[in-house]
Design a protein that fits this description.
Elements (H helix, E strand, L loop, with lengths): L11 E5 L4 H12 L3 E6 L4 H8 L5 E5 L8 H12 L4 E4 L14 H29 L2 E6 L12 H21 L4 E8 L8 H5 L1 H10 L12 H8 L10 E4 L7
Parallel strand pairs: 1-2, 1-4, 2-3, 4-5, 5-6, 6-7
Length: 252
């Protein structure tokens, strides 16, 4: 084992949805551990770029909308060209739509499934092809508490995150023998743009906090340690795991 099994020195990481929130925090944590970062997002990433630069690591922004698979080849090509390789992929980009199941529209179903599940799979596929040529790599999918539970009013999100948990295991089964570790992190209730409506709803906010043993919403930086661990050689024998980072939510 390496002298520091948690070091990511010399590694190149792709993080999707890295312009804000969880993706930004993960990108910065990977950089702090030594990785160069290609950040994928639909909007400007100046803040993420500055935070990564402050660690002394290289940064490359890839402007892409993962509402379709069209940008997938370009994401991989740009990363390899700009940073010289591709060792780690974090599939963090995701969207959510809320409506009662009786009223849920096909458009809201397709939009969420395309970003959260379809693009995550095909980007994993494209990155895995590069990783196999390089002798291996790490893929980290961002799952959810709704990979374990049903939730309410988020039919396509629940379906997509349940699918992510399944794909994590499928890809681990197929690629473990080819040097690629595929695992997932399942965040609990984190204070991000996706949960702004829940935080603003006094009743839902109170009920959520009452269920979390830690007594608070997660902060984006709370995911950094799990991401660095799964991206590092310290996790070389982990395959197909879905790791909750939830303040104890599932323990209740």
């Amino acid at each position: 084992m390496a002298a520091n099994p948690f070091s990511l020195d010399g590694k190149v990481a792709v993080v999707t949805g890295a312009n804000t929130g969880l993706g930004q925090a993960i990108a910065v944590a990977l950089a702090q551990a030594g990785a160069d970062v290609a950040a994928v997002g639909r909007s400007g990433m100046d803040e993420t770029a500055a935070a990564v630069a402050a660690t002394g690591r290289r940064f490359h922004a890839v402007s892409a909308d993962l509402g379709s698979t069209e940008p997938v080849p370009r994401i991989v090509a740009e990363t390899v060209e700009a940073l010289g390789g591709l060792d780690i992929l974090v599939n963090n980009a995701g969207i959510i739509r809320r409506a009662d199941a009786l009223d849920f529209t096909e458009a809201d179903w397709d939009a969420v499934m395309d970003v959260n599940l379809k693009s995550a799979f095909f980007l994993s596929q494209a990155c895995a092809r590069v990783m196999i040529e390089r002798g291996g790599g790490k893929i980290i999918n961002i799952a959810s508490m709704l990979s374990f539970q049903g939730g309410i009013r988020v039919a396509s999100y629940t379906a997509s995150k349940s699918g992510i948990a399944g794909l994590t295991k499928l890809m681990a089964n197929e690629w473990a023998g080819r040097g690629i570790n595929v695992n997932a992190i399942a965040p609990g209730y984190f204070a991000t743009n996706n949960t702004a409506a829940l935080q603003a709803d006094e009743t839902r906010n109170r009920d959520i906090l009452a269920r979390i043993p830690a007594g608070r919403w997660g902060r984006p930086e709370d995911l950094g340690g799990a991401a660095v661990f799964l991206a590092s050689s310290a996790a070389d024998y982990m395959h197909g795991a879905v790791v909750p980072v939830d303040g104890g939510w599932l323990a209740r």
